[in-house]
Design goal:
With about 70 residues, the chain is an all-alpha fold. It is built from 3 helices and no strands. InterPro entries: GH, Glyco_hydro_1.
Length: about 70
């Protein structure tokens, strides 16, 4: 279950819009794994940069792709 609470930029300035988009990406990245079967690029980069994940195999990636949800209700 996901409690979808959108974030809104503080102003219409591009920097605030960008920050709100990045915050939404950080908050809901796992939905991509469940629905699309892959990690989003921004999380791949974050995990690699922080040495948080180095043991996902090609077989694991296949399992993720094949194990996506049939319905994602927000």
């Amino acid at each position: 279950m996901i409690n979808m609470t959108p974030l809104y930029p503080a102003t219409s300035k591009p920097v605030d819009i960008f920050q709100a988009q990045k915050a939404m990406q950080r908050r809901y990245w796992f939905a991509d794994v469940q629905a699309l079967g892959t990690y989003p690029r921004h999380m791949e980069a974050f995990l690699a940069a922080n040495n948080l994940r180095d043991d996902i195999t090609a077989e694991d990636r296949i399992t993720l792709r094949e194990g996506t949800v049939d319905l994602y209700w927000v």
